[in-house]
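Title: Prediction job returns without error message
Component: structure pipeline
Severity: low
Priority: P3
Assignee: unassigned

Description:
Job completed but the reporter wants confirmation the result is attached to the right record. Sequence as submitted:
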Amino acid sequence: MSTSVYRSRSRTVRNRLLIAAGVVVLVATGFLLGRAQAGPQSPVPAAAPSPPPAPRSPSPSVAPPPVGGIDAYLPLQVEDAAEASGMEMQDTGDEGGGRNAGWVTNGDYLRFDNVNFGGTPPAAVNLRVASDTDASGRIEIRVDSATSPPLATLNTSRTGGWQNWRTETTDMSPVTGLHTLYVTFANDYPEDFVNLNWLVFRTAEG
């Protein structure tokens, strides 16, 4: 191999190394310039924890109506009373059949247990009555005791016969919830004055 060929190859290798070194220098210079322009990187702030959900405002406390018992807004038949004091039961001639309370006089009473008025108080009470006497008396509605103040009072009158039935209505003081119901009878004469078949309470809308 001649000296000139060797020198030519050496020059070629040297030129290639110089070019590669120049490329490396340019790349490094560009990287450093880019970091300098971008400035120091700020750390990414950690995400703030989400605040706990605000507690719900409590709903107004509304006492639910009691459950169970006898529905006061359905007819209470006298033969279904837990206790009938003083009177006697007899087969009735009223529509629907069944039995009515007869021979009712002063001091008699009926007791119904667990009568449920719910959350809506009654405004009135209907009573199915019959009488064949002018010795009028009073039918009174009481709760929890036979001697508590009456919530309703119906003054009875002759209907034209002991089996001549008529529905009478009287206003009533409000009451709600579950109660023992007493239907008491009073008059000023020592004689029978009314027969009673059933009663049912009514709301202001009913």
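Comment from assignee: result matches the submitted record. Residues 3-38 form the longest helix (36 residues).
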